[in-house]
Specification:
Rossmann fold; alpha+beta; D-amino Acid Aminotransferase, Chain A, domain 1; globular
Length: 422
């Protein structure tokens, strides 16, 4: 087979690396890819948003299967266009990707199907939203309805912060069309976890759970980011919790989407809050998480390609996946200034020494090769990922590899995988 992975981040590097290991695959391409992905796949200079360019490349290169990584092209309908051109693709249709593309749609679905989640209201009028926030009190969560590059959610500790978040979206138009409507919801308390399952429209196969670290600084300080590190498995998601998530969230969602003429095929990523009342759904993403995908691919013992194809073909019940018992942990190295104004163009040295251990893989997110040098080309730049017999061992390996990387222009959190302060 010839497989094309669409995207350029750490998630796409992990997927390209896992797909390249499949005996079913002869060639792996990635569009547009990055400097690290180029070591595991052939990078193609076509943007993930260039639908016409991707179609043209697939036809020219004889691509058999496309795996779409990021949410934006999924929500925009890339899979529909690929399938319309008779190019098999992994990922939900535009109609199904609305689970991530509209937070209001998801909350309404949860309400109809009895899926446990935070209490909420939807608003287009700023005054009405502010009145509701004043009535509910703080803390409260304000979310832009659409995709806002991970910046559309405010956890407001005070009513004033909640009102400011309403003004930013509905008054100032900070998130454009994505913020033309907002969701205001109850602030849930508990431990967060990430849960992943493949869904083929009818059947669902649980993958694995992970925990990530969102805030930029040690001790969960500073602004939220796309993720500064993650590990899998997590002791928070026990077999009992997995059963609840599958029976009360994943399967009811799959049934409802099929019933409503929007069959979901792809990976469903449930952001969970494990509350005293049990697991509740914070959000769905319709793609693998980043950086959670990196530990998941390190732990996956089975060939991922048949599972992706079976998901697309609706025959997931014939698939069984095996996982390494070991723990995998990913530490993100980011450019100075991230998440506000990351510095680009700084040189990264020492990557060869960091990958001397076969239990370590450095996944690239925002890098480019220029004149024989590896340069930072984004906010989150590297995902140093290690496998170990337990969390402590994986952690030591990951940070041992980081200490061999010579990159004065980068930084990382030093507490990924450590118990969180209460």
């Amino acid at each position: 087979m010839r497989v094309l992975v669409v995207g350029s981040g750490g998630r796409e590097h992990a997927l390209s690396w896992a797909i390249a290991a499949s005996p079913l695959v002869d060639r792996v391409y990635c569009a547009p890819g990055n400097a690290g992905i180029a070591e595991d796949a052939e990078c193609v200079p076509v943007a993930a948003s260039d639908t016409a360019g991707l179609i043209a490349f697939c036809k020219r290169a004889g691509i058999d299967f496309v795996v779409v990584g990021p949410e934006a092209p999924l929500v925009a309908g890339l899979v529909d266009v690929l399938e319309g051109e008779e190019i098999a693709a992994f990922g939900p249709s535009k109609a199904a990707a609305v689970l991530e593309g509209s937070k209001g749609f998801l909350k309404d679905l949860c309400a109809r199907e009895g899926i446990p989640t935070a209490a909420y209201r939807r608003f287009r009028d700023a005054a009405a939203a502010k009145t509701y926030i004043a009535e509910q009190g703080a803390p409260v969560v304000v979310k832009a309805d659409g995709l806002a590059a991970g910046k559309g959610v405010t956890v407001a500790a005070t009513i004033a912060e909640g009102h400011a978040a309403v003004d930013a979206a509905l008054g100032e138009g900070r998130f454009g069309a994505a913020g033309a409507e907002i969701v205001v919801e109850e602030c849930l308390r508990g431990e967060e976890a990430s849960f992943f399952a493949l869904v083929d429209g009818t059947n669902a196969l649980p993958l694995a759970a992970a925990q990530d670290h969102k805030r930029v600084g040690d001790g969960d300080t500073g602004p939220n980011t796309g993720g500064m590190g993650a590990f899998s498995p997590t002791p928070l998601v026990t077999p009992a919790v997995e059963g609840i998530v599958m029976e009360r969230m994943i399967l009811p969602t799959a049934r409802a989407m099929t019933r409503d003429g929007r069959p979901f095929k792809g990976v469903l990523y449930a952001g969970l809050m494990l509350t005293e009342e049990g697991p509740k759904l914070l959000e769905y993403n319709v793609r693998f998480g980043d950086p959670e995908c990196q530990p998941l691919m390190m732990r996956l013992m089975s060939d991922i390609v048949p599972a992706l194809i079976a998901t697309r073909d609706g025959i997931l019940k014939e698939v069984d996946l095996r996982w390494h018992d070991e723990t995998a942990l990913c530490v993100v190295m980011a450019s100075e200034g991230y998440p506000d104004d990351p510095r680009r163009g700084t040189e990264i040295r020492g990557l060869g020494g960091a990958t001397g251990d076969p239990e370590v893989k450095v996944f690239h997110a925002g890098t480019k090769r220029q004149g024989g040098k590896i340069l930072a080309d984004g906010g989150r730049v590297l995902g140093v990922t290690a496998l170990g017999k337990d969390l402590s061992t994986a952690r030591d390996r990951a940070y041992g590899a980081i200490d061999k990387i010579d990159w004065p222009g980068g930084f990382c959190r030093r507490d990924i995988g450590l118990p969180r302060r209460r």
